[in-house]
From TrEMBL:
Record's protein name: PiggyBac transposable element-derived protein 4
Region Disordered, residue ranges: 1-29
Start and end residues of each PiggyBac transposable element-derived protein domain: 64-320
Domain of life, per lineage: Eukaryota
Signal sequence range: none
Originating gene: PGBD4_363
InterPro entries for this protein: PGBD (IPR029526)
Chain intervals with Acidic residues compositional bias: 16-27
Length: 325
């Protein structure tokens, strides 16, 4: 409920208002536990003033799906993928003794336009699903996908898939890399993540939760979450706009080597995750909801100190919760 509807005198929540004297007052109020009469509830505390300017942050000539796609996979990102794929293929050919019959002998340079076609085929394969990749180029009428043959041959698609590369192996420093578990995709993933953050300003209400991307291959940080539909896969922590579901920021869980927001090493890991996702939205009057797995008095105090509202159910066994509760 908007803060304008209530004055400080109307609310029984002392110290939590747009006119709070200091961050310390806000934090003291956050730990001021009191009983609530459910039959005669007091008005909610007023929200912090919201200073965001919600909406699209980029210029568009149309609203076609391809133009939205190109906001995130722009010329720089696609060009980088083409360049690294080309370099990796050339390096492979130079380092290996190839037989005359090797399919690699037929490799030819790739450019940005061909990478876009390749990515388009990957997306289409997620919509029109078949058990074997070669079936997309099958000559049998029941299995054929004629349009793909017009875009790219099966051999060309397969060899691009073989050499597809998203980073420069020569520049990876195992001691200083910010996300060692993501070193093979980090540059592209980080660039796309920044595009999601910079292209759109969310409305006041945002949400933090986790998602699981189905993956059953070999991977050191693959997760098993029985309550998720995919069950096996790569776990993402995501910050989304509540009204639309737009992903504003995301973190891939890679284990202990994750790079997280750290104001104090004494904070819980769940607090670090939420603060990392929200870093660009702090001190602007946003309101965040999250799963009760993340919610704690510690997180609530920290968010309030950054003029960010938070509400969600609280597990009674959290550190900082009164024993009576």
């Amino acid at each position: 409920m908007d803060s304008e509807e209530y004055s400080e005198s109307d609310s029984s929540y002392e110290g939590i208002s747009d006119e709070s004297d200091s961050d310390e007052d806000t934090l003291d109020a956050a730990r001021n536990w009191c009983r609530i009469d459910q039959e005669n509830l007091a008005p909610p505390p007023p929200r912090f003033p919201f200073s965001g300017n919600p909406g699209l942050n980029t210029r568009m000539d149309s609203s076609s799906p391809i133009e939205f796609f190109c906001i995130f996979f722009d010329d720089d990102i696609v060009g980088y993928i083409a360049s690294e794929t080309k370099c990796y293929a050339e390096d492979f050919i130079e380092r290996n003794d190839l037989t005359p019959s090797s399919r690699v002998q037929k490799w030819k340079d790739i450019d940005s336009s061909e990478i876009r076609v390749f990515l388009g085929i990957i997306i289409l394969q997620g919509i029109v699903q078949k058990p074997l990749q070669k079936w997309y180029w099958s000559q049998r009428p029941l299995l054929s996908t004629p349009y793909l043959k017009q875009l790219m041959s099966e051999k060309r698609f397969s060899i691009i898939m073989k050499f597809l590369h998203l980073t420069n192996n020569e520049t990876i420093d195992l001691k200083t890399h910010p996300q060692l578990g993501l070193r093979k995709i980090y540059e592209v993933y980080d660039a796309i993540n920044k595009k999601f953050k910079s292209s759109y300003v969310p409305e006041r209400d945002v949400s933090v939760d986790e998602a699981l991307s189905l993956y059953k291959g070999r991977l050191g940080y693959k997760q098993y979450l029985p309550k998720k539909r995919a069950r096996f896969g790569i776990k993402f922590y995501q910050l989304c706009e509540s009204s639309s579901g737009y992903i504003l920021n995301s973190l891939i869980y890679t284990g202990k080597d994750m790079t997280l927001w750290i104001e104090s090493p004494n904070y819980k890991s769940t607090t670090h995750i939420v603060m990392t996702l929200l870093e660009d939205l702090l001190d602007k009057g946003y309101c965040v909801t999250s799963d009760n797995f993340y919610t704690s008095p510690e997180l609530a105090e920290l968010l309030l100190s950054h003029r960010t509202d938070v509400y969600r159910k609280l597990r009674p066994n959290r550190i900082g919760v009164l024993e009576e509760i």
